[in-house]
Amino acid sequence: MRYIDLFAGAGGFSEGFRRAGFKPVAHVEVDPAACFTLKTRLAYYYLTENGKADIYVQYLTGEISRNQLYSFIPPHILESVIDRSMSDKNNHKIFQMIDKVNGKKEIDLIVGGPPCQAYSLVGRARDAYGMREDPRNYLYIQYGRFLKRYSPKVFVFENVIGLVSAEKGKYFRNIQRYFRRLGYIVEPFIVNANQFGVLQNRRRVIIMGWQKNLNLSVGELADQTSFKYEIKSIFKDLPKIHAGGGIDKFFTYASEINDYLRFAKIRNGIDVLTQHVARPHTEQDKEIYRITIENWQNNRIRLDYNDLPERLKTHHNRKSFLDRFKIVADDLPYSQTVVAHISKDGHYYIHPDIKQNRSISVREAARLQTFPDDYYFEGIKEGQNRTAAFRQIGNAVPPLMIEKIARKIKEFLAC
């Protein structure tokens, strides 16, 4: 079964559906760095499926360049990543590019979700107009243009939980009405990534639609399996690094694989660790980090910004975002939500080891999202990708969650 990934980002949707046995036709994404990430992942799949995984390993270890890696990949595969924004002006060209790589084959699914900042609770709180005038509120209409063009059997639309309450639910209702007018039976779901084995508190809206003639009965999307893992499973095998430390291209593991890493397919055969790099921090931030960690370890108390010594308070806002410094506690079953703001600073994602005294690394953030260690997050320029990687990871959907949803869809379509 073939799918198109819209607003593809770093490819969390695509990774999940591909693991479930679906075939990607095209990825549409406007961020150039994310497009390189998608191409590199396509290179991974092509090489590993054709017995040439050693070439991909050479790229991870820095022996060959990105251009050299891409030279081993048939051009039509890389051309399936379409670096264009979806709009009434651009869509005709995007349709042409998709049809070029797909031919006249049927499209079974369309997946993806538009940028979530316009609907997010934090985004609305920070914007003077509550994001009411943000054009991203209406990107679901562009999603619908592709439903009209390709008439997939099923679509999966994902967004933040804030979509339900934005403008008192107006957008949430309008999206469903619009998709129904396009001829689909539509059903919304509220899910949390931790219901699927992701060690993260990440609530999301999933709107599923299917053609009326399919007569599907979806039921519950969430995985009912009980999980007994803790966040420490994500950190345990990684080398210890300090603020500003780590290596981008190659690092050996500190210990053997554990049950969670095997279950989530985070370590899945290519034992090369990349992007375990941490951002640098000021001495003041590191002092706040120590206080934050000690509060949790000694008293299991989250830091309230107003409780800091006056000399450490530099923010004028003392009434909101008082939890802006937060430990990723390794003795809990899931972490706080990883969001794109992690690309700006790491204060909300402090590593639990006081000896390392830093925010989490790119690889640790990717693991919280269940991206495998062989997943490489690119920048626009090769080798300059920490900020771009954090942004892509924060905007992504967890592949493990999407894989489990994709497998259920596969079961529905097989009935």
Overall radius of gyration: 21 Å
Helix-strand sequence? EHEHHHHEHEHHEHEEHEHEHHHH
**CATH-defined fold name of the domain at 2-216 and 397-414:** Rossmann fold
Q: What do we call the CATH homologous superfamily of the domain at 2-216 and 397-414?
A: Vaccinia Virus protein VP39
Q: What features would you describe in this structure?
A:
The radius of gyration is 21 Å and the shape is globular. Helices cover 35% and strands 11% of the residues. By secondary structure, the chain is of the alpha/beta class. The chain contains 15 helices and 9 strands. The protein has a domain of 233 residues: Rossmann fold. About 3% of the residues have low confidence. The strands form 2 sheets. It has a 7-stranded mixed β-sheet with strand order 3-2-1-4-5-7-6, with helices on both faces. The two termini are 14 Å apart.
Summary tags:
9 strands, Rossmann fold, 35% helix, alpha/beta, seven-stranded mixed β-sheet, 415 residues, 15 helices, two-stranded antiparallel sheet
Short description:
With 415 residues, the chain is of the alpha/beta class. The chain has 15 helices and 9 strands.
Outline the fold blueprint.
Layout: E1 2-6, H1 12-19, E2 23-28, H2 32-49, H3 53-60, H4 66-70, H5 75-78, E3 81-82, H6 91-102, E4 109-112, H7 121-126, H8 139-150, E5 154-160, H9 170-181, E6 184-192, E7 203-211, H10 232-235, E8 246-247, H11 259-263, E9 276-277, H12 283-299, H13 362-368, H14 386-395, H15 399-414
